[in-house]
Design brief:
Layout: E1 7-12, E2 15-20, H1 32-45, E3 51-56, H2 78-86, E4 92-96, E5 99-101, H3 103-110, E6 113-116, E7 121-123, H4 137-145, H5 147-156, E8 160-161, H6 162-168, E9 173-174, H7 180-191, H8 208-212, H9 216-224, H10 233-246, H11 249-264, H12 267-281, E10 300-303, H13 307-318, E11 323-326, H14 330-350, H15 355-361, E12 365-368, E13 379-382, H16 388-401, E14 407-410, H17 417-421, E15 430-435, E16 444-449, H18 455-467, E17 471-476, H19 483-500, H20 504-514, H21 520-527, H22 533-542, H23 550-557, H24 583-595, H25 605-625, H26 632-642, H27 652-659, H28 661-675, H29 683-691
Parallel strand pairs: 2-3, 3-4, 4-6, 5-7, 6-9, 10-11, 10-13, 11-12, 13-14, 14-15, 16-17
Antiparallel strand pairs: 1-2, 7-8, 15-16
Helix pairs in contact: 1-2, 2-3, 4-5, 4-10, 5-10, 9-10, 10-11, 12-26, 13-14, 19-25, 20-25, 23-24, 28-29
The structure holds 3-hydroxybutanoyl-coenzyme A.
Length: about 700
Amino acid sequence: MSEPQVVRYDVEDGIGVITVDNPPVNALGPGVREGIIDAVGRGNADPGVAAMVLIGAGRSFIAGADIRQFGKARTLTTGQSTKALDESAKPVVAAIHGYALGGGLEHALACNYRIAVPTAKVGLPEVLIGILPGGGGTQRLPRLIGPKAAMEMIVSGRHVPAAEAKQLGIVDELVDDKDLRGAAIRFAKGIASKRPLPRVRDKSDRLAEAKADPGMFEAMRKSIARKARNQKAPYHCIAAVEAATKEPFEQGLETERRLFAELENADEAKALRYAFFAEREVAKIPGAPKDYKPPRIKTAAVVGAGTMGGGIAMCFADYGIPVKIMDATRETLDKGLQRVRDNYAVSVKRGSITQAQMDERLPRIQAVERYEDIADCDVVVEVVFERVDVKKEVFAKLDAVMKPGALLLSNSSAIDTDIMANMTNRPQDVAGAHFFAPANVMKLCEVVKGTKTSNETIVGAMQMGRDVGKISAVAGSCDGFAANRSRAPFITEMMLMLEEGALPEQIDKVMVDYGYPMGPFAVNDLSGLDISYDTRKRRAAADPNYRKLHVPDRLVEMGRKGQKTGAGWYRYEKGDRTPHPDEVVKSVIADVAKEFGIEQRTFTDDEILRRLLLASVNEACKILEEGKAYRASDIDVMWLHGFGFPRYRGGLMYWADTVGSKAILDQISEWHERYGARWRPSNLLREIGEKGGVLREAKAGVPL
Ligand code: 3HC
């Protein structure tokens, strides 16, 4: 079988058209760079060709280098194919639709002109996979739009919409999206004889901005210091742009290449590449009908106007989907809507949305009081009180009114999906959609598959999550589902380490140093210590072997519920959220230790980190073993988007592999002996650990 042709070349009306055709996103995979170089050569050699167009087939221009090829030997670099464009004696026009990202935009920048359709997006998102633009992007973009704007784009990695790209000067002209190829050919004919050829590399006027504001690079370093801690790529991006302002073009390219090489195979880049593909893998549902496209959600309903219900309604409204929010009384609805209004107002005040956006979004949320009013919605998310009898009643009513084919979803964080599904005559249409609080901010939506949930419903619920900007991951129905269940042992260990002599501030510091935005105790102070108090009491009553967590229980009983009461794990000054370590907490810990005869000792940072994360790794293995998640990498996605796990560490199971499955099994076995049943190594961990296998590739032991 012959290789598919990834770059085509044809001539129309005296213009050589170079079409990259490498589905799905025209990444610069094997043969693409070669094809571009070859086509540019053909265009230049053909006296019948006056100019050329570089365009993408299918849904995009070029989405960048093929990320799967990083770390492997490459025959050609982006630098070589961009050089061919740069050195073309005849002008080349980049015609952009869909995405021009990374190496894709770098190819466009090496062309003499760029036109785009209004829906196109451009960007240099390399930093998000732990590298920097390595095909001249850090040298050309500052020359084209100025170092400050270029640095902002490169360090954030954001996608810039076409209109803004035009404003910035990245794109020369916006054209109608009905016939991009035709528009590009016409544009190319218009500029074919213009000389000298405009080349980004030759521009220098915008570089003067750096002379006028030489502190801009240091200021940028300072501004990213907190977010980019432990990472190299964002700083290398700044260094490369700085080089563009100080070094001649060719030398700047050398610097870019050197900095790129330092990043490509670093741990940070490997972990981020893993996270990128884990996020794509998570959307794949084993056993789902191939190519099944769920019907688009045009209208949604939320039952329950509490904080969570309001947050979920905002998710729909934010993404242009009209949503009805239902509750039993007008009063609850009014309160709920007021909360939504207040939340939007805060966002406007903070500048994260504009007043116009708020005015557009709010009317999409309509308050209704009767089930009949939501009957024709494509999806309904139940967000009522977490009580089985209440949920059962809601699902029986939903079954009675909702149109056939509607997705019936529950936001319960604990109740078995089957209980709700069994109240309906359509259990195949019922699933969980577990949003994380605050729902309009947190990215994760855990889609929970009940025993009878159809794969079509799962695909539909996943698509719904995607449509409202979430990353969805599937879990099987079990206590805590996959995300919270895998995190629960982390919480238990952080409390129990206190009894043995660690302090909240020490544990928090270890986790912040590791990369979490906040330590787990500080987070607990924010969410409230009382939230899990009742659950613990219930569990303790139901299970005689339940290991009580005395320290948090006592704090709650003392009225220390976190920031809202001015004290929890830390003490807070009025009107200030800074946590201050508190002697009271120390003495509660000491009392508990004394009362239960627990020996006090010191902990190393490494022991704290391992004890917290390994408890969760073991639980994640149990979850997989029981078929409550499809893949280990899905659990990583849950940790990245549900719990603030540092992305540049890949995820819980990716990190576990950096420790090694054998070492983990040994450690957990040792703790099993020391601490008892809660550290029993899971069978899956045993199986993988004994062989020294890879944890992040583990799959569900039984079908979900
Ligand atoms: N390399 C390899 N595969 C890629 C890819 C890339 N750059 N970009 C996307 N894909 C694959 C995805 O893995 C997925 O494959 P699958 O169907 O087998 O899972 C498929 O293309 C579709 O991707 P998405 O599901 O993400 O499609 P969306 O439409 O949601 O998003 C996108 C499209 C915005 C282009 C998104 O895929 C994306 O952000 N891609 C990465 C872009 C990027 O980082 N480019 C820079 C690469 S590094 C570089 O260019 C270095 C240079 O400076 C030298």
